[in-house]
Each structure stands twice: as C-alpha cells, then as structure tokens.
Amino acid sequence: MPTYTAPLRDMRFVLNELAGTERLRTLPGCEEVGPDLVDPVLEEAARFCAEVLLPLNQSGDIEGCTLENGVVRTPRGFPEAYRAFREGGWTSLGADPDWGGQGLPKSVGLLVEEMICSANMAFGMYPGLSHGATMAIEKHGTPEQRALYLPKLVSGEWSGTMCLTEPHCGTDLGLIRTRAVPEDDGSVRITGAKIFISAGEHDLAENIVHLVLAKLPDAPPGTRGISLFVVPKFLPTEDGRPGARNGVTCTGLEHKMGIKASATCALAFEEAKGWLVGRPHKGLSAMFTMMNEARLGVGVQGLGIAEIAYQNAVAYARDRIQGRGLDGTKAPDRPADPILVHPDVRRMLLTMRAMTEGCRALCAMTALEHDVSLRHPDPEVRKAADDVVQLMTPIIKAVCTDTGWEAAVAGMQVWGGHGYIRDNGMEQFARDARITQIYEGTNGIQALDLVGRKMGAHAGRYLRSFFHPVLGFIEARMEEPAMEEFILPLSKAFGRLQQVTADLAQRGLRDPFEAGAAATDYLRLFGLTALAYAWARMAEIALGKEEDAFYRAKLATARFFMQRILPETSSLAAKVLAGGGTLKAFEDAAF
Amino acid sequence: MPTYTAPLRDMRFVLNELAGTERLRTLPGCEEVGPDLVDPVLEEAARFCAEVLLPLNQSGDIEGCTLENGVVRTPRGFPEAYRAFREGGWTSLGADPDWGGQGLPKSVGLLVEEMICSANMAFGMYPGLSHGATMAIEKHGTPEQRALYLPKLVSGEWSGTMCLTEPHCGTDLGLIRTRAVPEDDGSVRITGAKIFISAGEHDLAENIVHLVLAKLPDAPPGTRGISLFVVPKFLPTEDGRPGARNGVTCTGLEHKMGIKASATCALAFEEAKGWLVGRPHKGLSAMFTMMNEARLGVGVQGLGIAEIAYQNAVAYARDRIQGRGLDGTKAPDRPADPILVHPDVRRMLLTMRAMTEGCRALCAMTALEHDVSLRHPDPEVRKAADDVVQLMTPIIKAVCTDTGWEAAVAGMQVWGGHGYIRDNGMEQFARDARITQIYEGTNGIQALDLVGRKMGAHAGRYLRSFFHPVLGFIEARMEEPAMEEFILPLSKAFGRLQQVTADLAQRGLRDPFEAGAAATDYLRLFGLTALAYAWARMAEIALGKEEDAFYRAKLATARFFMQRILPETSSLAAKVLAGGGTLKAFEDAAF
C-alpha cells in the first residue's frame, strides 16, 4: 500500500522563502501568518492526511459508492473520517470568521488541500465542492441566504454541490434545459436533469446544498439566459434545521475510471423548491467568479497526485533490485543493484520531481497573488494581483493536472509490471488523476481561455503581469555568473514565448481558428516558461546554501529542469508557428 | 458501446502499395500472396473481430476472470468465442503447414493481429501466448517435442505460456530461483514460483503448455545459467491426449488496471514434470530468438488500441454538439456545432490518426523485412533484412505502444467527461493499452536495447540498414518540387538523428551511463524520424492520385505529421545532447 509523508520542508520553502510570508503579513487579517501560526497547522494536516485519509484511499477505490433506493453510501470509514475532518476544523480553515471560519489565507489553504489530494483525492471532493457552494452564496447570496447556509457549510454539517452539466451539455452551458418556474412566495420550482454531480448525494452530511444553473421562463437564449439557484436537499426549517425532503433525487451513480469513492451523481429535479442566488440571467457570470478558485483547486489535485506518485516511485526504486549500474556495480553485497542507479529510472524520477516542485512553486506564487487580490486595501494593488491570477489560472489548471497525470503514469512505469497491479496502488493514482485534466473545463478549454480571453484582454494587460516581472528578473541577473546556468535557458524560453505570442496575437486576430489551433501547444509553452521562472527564482534562493542538502537538491533539480525538460519549448514554439492550416484543410468527411 | 470497423482500405494500402506484395511474392511459400488470397482473409477477420470479439470486450472487462479451487474461469462468452476462433483457423494462420498451419506471411498476420487487438486485446492474449510457445518449440524443441506439441498448439486445442517472471525479478532474469532437477528418464522436476503469467490457467483449451525458465543444478550464476523447459499442465498420454495432472497450479489471479479478461496468473511449480527445450543453460538466448516477434506483437497491440480509440473519438466528435466554430457557425440548423469543428479537437484527432497510420506503415514495412529474413533463399538477403528487423523492433515496440496509450488517452479527452465513464468504453482502451508499455521489456528497456545493443553492434551495421535507405530516399527526391514539403522536414529530422547518433556513440562509449541517460529520448527521436520516412513514402504514393479521397486524406495527414508532430525532434535532440550530468549529479539520498 502506498505511503505518504507530507513534503513539509518544501511547503515551508515555497510559502516562506519563495512566495514570501512578509508580503502576506501586510494583508488585513493575515498579520499573524508566520511559522508560529502556520507550522502547527501544516503538521496537524500532515498527520491527519497520513493517518486518517490515506488508509481509506485504496479501500475507497475498491469499494466505491453504492446507490440503493435513492440513498448513496460512501465507502466504509468515510463517514467517520468526514466527521473527524469536520471536527478538526478542516472545512473552515479558509472561511470567513463571520461564518465561523478561521480566515487563513489561500496561500496556506492550498498547501493543506495538496496534502488532502495526495492522501485521498476522492475524499477531498466532498469538502471541495462545499467550498464552491460556500463561495457562491457568500458572493452572490442575500443576507438571509448567507445567514442560513454559510455557518452550516463552513462547519461542514451541510455540504454543497455545483449542478451545471446536463446529459447533452457540459462545456457549452448555453444549451441547458433545466427550468425554474417562479412561485408567488419568491421561490422557484426547478425541473430538469443534471449529470456528473460530484457529492450530489451521500451519507456524510445532514443536508446537501445544491447550487443549480437553470433558466427562468423569460430567459434570453444561450449563456445570457442562465440563472443560479440554491436548492437544498432538505428544506431548512424556521430554526435552520433540515426539514421536509425537497424534490431532488439521485437517479444514478456513474461507474468511473477513478475517484470511485467520490459519488458522481445523476440528479433529477422535479419541481424542487429553490431560490435565486444573485441576479436573474446572471448565473453563469456568478459561476465564473468562482471558477478561478475552483480551477486552482483542480490544479492542486494534480499536484497532490504527482507528489504521492513521486514518493512511492522513489521508495520502490530504492527497494527493488534489478540489474547492475551501467557505469559499474553499486551494491556489490547484493545480487543486484537498486533500480535507482539506472539512468532512465533517475530520468523518470527527476522529471516527476522537477515538475512537481515546479508546480508547487507556481501554485504558491499564484496563491499569494490571490490573497493580495482579495485582501489588499489598495484597489490598484488588488487589480494588479488579480491580473496575475487571471492569467495563471488556466495555466496552473492545465499544467498541474498534466503533471499529476504524467507523474502517476511515470510512477507506474518505475514500478514496472507491479505498477499495473491494483494492490500496489500506483495505477489508482493514474486513474484518479485522469479526471483532473477533464473537469472544471478540459485542459483544451483552459488553453482557449488563455489564447481567447486572457491574451488579448485589456490590450495585453494580463500578459504584461507575467512578462514584465520575468523580463525584470532576467535583466537584473544578466551579470551574475552563478545564475547564468538558470538565466540563459530561462531567457531563451522566454524569448520563444514572446516571439510566439506576437505571432499568434496577429494571426489569431485575423482568424480565431488559428488561435484555437495553437492553443494547447501555446499553453504548454507558456507553462514551461513560467516553471522555468519559478525554478530560476528557487535556484537563486538556494545558491550559497549548498551545505544544506535541501538546497543542494533544489539546485540539482533546477539544473535538471533547465537541461532536460525546458528544451521542450523549442518544439512547442515550432508547432505553434506552423499554424493551423493542416487542421483546417483536412476534410470533415475524411476523418 | 464502442464500435469498430477494420481499416481494410488502409491495411491494403500499407501491404500492397507501401511495403509491396511483389517482393513478398518472390519468397518461397508466398508466391500466391496477393489481393485474391489476402482480401478474403482480411475481410473475414474483420467480420469475426467486429461480430464475435468486440461484443465481449466490455463485458470481459467488467466481469474479469475468476479463480476458484485452482480453476480459472474466463468471462462469459470467451470459451465459445475461442472455439469459434480456433475453428475459423485463426490460431493457425501464420503457422508452418507441416504442423497444420496455413503458412501465411507475417505481413498478413500482423494485420489480422491488429484487428484482434482493436476488438478485444485481452482475448488476443490467449492465442498470442500460444504463438510464442509454438515458436519456442519449433525452433528449439526435439523432433519428438515438435510432433507432440505443435499440431495441438497450431490447432489451438492446446494453448501455451511463457513463464519468465518471478516475484523478485522480471527485467533481470539472471536472478531467477526456479529449479529443475534432472530425473533418470531424461525429464526434470521443476519447483518454483512464477508470477504475471498470462493465460497461465484458463478454461479455453484442454491443455496448457508452459515454457518455463529455470536453473539446472550445475547452472552457472546469472543469465548464462538459465535453461528452458516445456511443462504441460496435463502430461500427454502415449497417444497425445491430456493425461495425468502435472504439479503446476494457479495460486492467484492479479487484479490489474486493465486487460481484466486476460488471466494473469501466479503459478506454483511443485516438482512438476518437464523436459529441456534446446541446450542446457541456453534458455535465455532461446527466449530471445522469439523476443523480436513478441515485441512486434506488443507493438501491434498498441496500434490496435490506437485505431479503435481513434474511430470512436471521431464518431463522438461528429455526434456531440457543443459551442460554435471559432471561425463561424457550421451547423446553423442545430443549437450548436459538432465538436469536430473545433481546432483543438481536430488537433487531437489528427495526432491520433497520423501516429496510428504511421505506426501501421512502420509495422508493415518491418513485417515485410521479417518475412524476407525468414524465407529468402539468399542468406545475405536474409541477413540484411534481419538487420532492419533487429533495429526496428525496439523502436516499434516502444513507439507503437506509446501511440496506443496516447491515442487512448486523447480519445478520452475528445469525449470529455463522458470519456471517464466506464460504460462508454473509452477509458478501457487506456487501461488496456497501459500494460503494453510495460511488458515484454518496458519501453525503457527497449531504449536501452537500441542504444546498448543495436547502435554499436557490428560496427553500426544495424544503424546503416536504416540510415542508408533513408539517405538514398532523400537524395533521390531533392529535385522534386512536389515532394519538397515532405522531404525537407524529413531531412531536417534525419540530420538531427545523425548528429545525435554520432554524439551519443562517442559519449556512450566513454561512459555507458551517458547512453542510458539519453536512451528514451533517443529512441523517440529515432521513432519519429522513422515515421517521417514512412509518411514521406506514403505521400509519394498518394501524390497525383488526389481525385481519390483516400489519397487526399493521406496527403493531408502527411502534411499534419510533418508540420505539427515532427518538430518534436528538435527538443528530443536537445535533451539528448544535454547529456546525463544532471542525472548522475543528483544525490541518491536526496530523492
């Protein structure tokens, strides 16, 4: 069975040394955020994840959820673990103190989320979805709605869902058919079918708060006619307890490739009582205000899987003996050397490590901007920080989930045939990780978001929020010999990115098909350049501290990234520059 | 449920037009191999695979195999399908007529294998393993062993296995512990534990012929002390029928990520009666003589999965409507356009298509050389053909299985959330394909085979068997304007490959670690260049025939390959040239 030790040293590094907690402490409500406050939280989370959540990961996968007469049972141990999770305060970590939350910044919350996803990603779906519902009501609900739902959601007594997808539409929500008919008392009656609803029905919480996209009778067609509603499973009584059963039932559970302990429900709404959240017909934009955070969260799922896959691949590579080192025997006292000595195994492990630590760094840097964008007193500073978040969100979602997947797959490969066997747990990581590249907007949609929405917006303002700091960073270090091995490859990749961006901006303006044809390769090129920037910054921190093994490993990993991963940017640039002609020319009938 | 239509037009193209059946017909026993003989075989195989094997693919995955009291049951329908398979003559297609086979060349057999792997890869494991056992006995058995076992194996009445792996060793077979103790009657008693034995026990055939690697008492240590034995499940009676039960039992079935209908057995040999096959202590080299064919076969598994994943991704992309074309509405009469219009979807589909058709071409070209290497009367011609097979085998195994995996994964992505749902069948392709990158030598081992064994062998003779024809092909077409768009990128990639090969040969000679550090990237670079060569050859055939949609699509796909896939070679070359320093420098303790 896989093991997991939270990478606390690296988490503290990205939080305190890379992103920097000094800047965090200038924010209202974050004055106390430092090692004294954060370390115990991280350590307790690490313990909880390793001791409570991890042991349920494999059994949860094997057992899955069951549906009987509309009742969904989560796997054995899940209800108890959820209760402990709730009582440990993990549902309220980042929530507003007004509703019973602990008010910790995203910069800390993301690290805890990573641990949860490493230990038991399927479990993490339940509180994760509640978080989205909390935000929706906090941001768009009436004072009454907030007072009714938020304390329950924050405490974890109730959980939440996001009901968007329908059988015939997911990406294109303009097509949804679920209807909301207003009643005289200000409520609505909701009727329709939703699918792929994570945590749509389960036995962990006493009530479930569905946030539902539906159309009012007078709705304009398409995405401009979608409204957001709150639809509780049990209608709250006067004193805020779960009362009568509402007209929403679970009609089916999906059999999925992975995250089998997460109940993915088909829900039937039959004249279910609901209430408008936010303004009529503005439901989609209300949803989109939560999207950045949800997408960062999915990125962190990928990161979490990458970390545990790496740890267990390393453990196997140390333990398994097979063959001899190509440059000589390494363990003469044993019948063979540990496979860790083989260069191709080291290549796989270092690729996993460099991508994982790079993604963690990128998440931490972006989480800090996220905190600034929400909390800084100066609206100009908030806006500048939000620009970074807007730009980096699709990149983090796609790159971190690709990393989770690739690391899980590489982890299987290190394990050889044993990686393909269920009992060893490595293949579960791959099956679980796969969904992160698909949901919350496929990674192809992230790429379109980057080239379609973010690239051109505000005359390139989002882009500049990345390009200017990177350029400044490079220029300030051109004369530093110790940084040369990092700055040169970074500046080469950055040059490619700038060239390709200029080319694509022109072509994409003339023909949006060209932007779409380049999107995925462009996002990857952007992501690798952002990782190179993060690695150069990390290397700079580590330089001069080589007596400490942690910093030595940082530098060695940074070198590996620059020499063996970053060259991918040359191909990506060439693919983007090749244009979309061959995609367009292919006849539809010939596929 | 997925559908499958065998790509007969493309199969005939690679067989007749690309590889060329004229050359095949010059070989003894192949004089009649032409459309009149081959087309009905392919058509009947296509029908059988679509009608009999495909309907059992998903149910076999869900049901899996069961083990009770040492008896393994395959999923419902498998015994009947196997009987029909056998009676249809599919087990004997390529076998020697001396033993009841039909003597068809590999060039035809591989196409049928591809169809089987598309329709039901797990089913194909059973006859596939028999094929390996047949070859082992045919090549290394005594006349008595051949007379006893081959007719039964060829007819499919009996099936075969290859028992190599043990719990503590797979790649490094020098470590095996299974013992063979000679008896006075010339037989041996075999004792030991084997794992991961495909078709090790099942209910499809009346007897199972195990080919077992074990050590004789006087065996030298390591791989030079391994012998090969035949160990039947039931000891054959005087008249060749299954008699007394031998001391080999199935002690466990693995729960795997995929190919769940294939029984992956742990076998216990307890003083099981067996007989030496070939010479004592030469078992590993006997196994290796079969390895090329087995590895080509695994490559074809990848190809088969890639094809069916592509077909079903295209079907969904035509059917699913979501959003509007970026360059304008394409289906104004419908609420949205089919997702086939989206450039990123087309990019995924064309990548799948270009890699799949390219791999099929490479397999066909290599299968022809394989046939020549076995059948040509002139030993010099045989040797030259064998050089190509030796060189291309690790490349085909790795590139085709990577293609199977990547296509299956891309197919899921085209399906979005629905691709993650078991009932839709797309995720099964990914789970099934994953093992092909691992077994029969992981793809990392293929890469080591290429740089370690094939690159330097015979002063580069294997390499020249590829480099010379490609160089000749390029040079002969430098002045042809119509070929320029294919020849230029091919020659660029080929130049990179030559440069990198020279560099690596030097560095690898000085330090084998350097060869190992480059191996995987080098193999991929080599594979893409070989695919570019295949695509240029296919484009040349298609040029001038553009009135036919088939050739138009070939040309369009060739252009896509050159412009959007082949640029990967630039990064791969850079990674190889970066060397293995960063892999070596990383401290073991720091992983």
From TrEMBL, chains A, B:
One Pfam family in the UniProt entry: Acyl-CoA_dh_C
Keywords assigned: FAD, Flavoprotein, Oxidoreductase
Catalyzed chemical reaction(s): 3-(methylsulfanyl)propanoyl-CoA + oxidized [electron-transfer flavoprotein] + H(+) = 3-(methylsulfanyl)acryloyl-CoA + reduced [electron-transfer flavoprotein]
Domain Acetyl-CoA dehydrogenase-like C-terminal: 474-583
Cofactor section: FAD
Domain Acyl-CoA oxidase/dehydrogenase middle positions: 162-271
Domain Acyl-CoA dehydrogenase/oxidase C-terminal intervals: 282-449
Enzyme Commission numbers on file: 1.3.99.41
Keyword Ion transport among UniProt keywords: no
Coiled coil regions, renumbered to chain: none
GO molecular function, one term: oxidoreductase activity, acting on the CH-CH group of donors
Function, as annotated: Involved in the assimilation of dimethylsulphoniopropionate (DMSP), an important compound in the fixation of carbon in marine phytoplankton, by mediating the conversion of 3-(methylthio)propanoyl-CoA (MMPA-CoA) to 3-(methylthio)acryloyl-CoA (MTA-CoA).
PANTHER family with a match to the protein in the record: ACYL-COA DEHYDROGENASE, BROAD-SPECIFICITY LINEAR ACYL-COA DEHYDROGENASE FADE5
Family the entry assigns: Belongs to the acyl-CoA dehydrogenase family.
Protein's name in the database: 3-methylmercaptopropionyl-CoA dehydrogenase
Organism: Roseicella aquatilis
Lineage of producing organism: Bacteria, Pseudomonadati, Pseudomonadota, Alphaproteobacteria, Acetobacterales
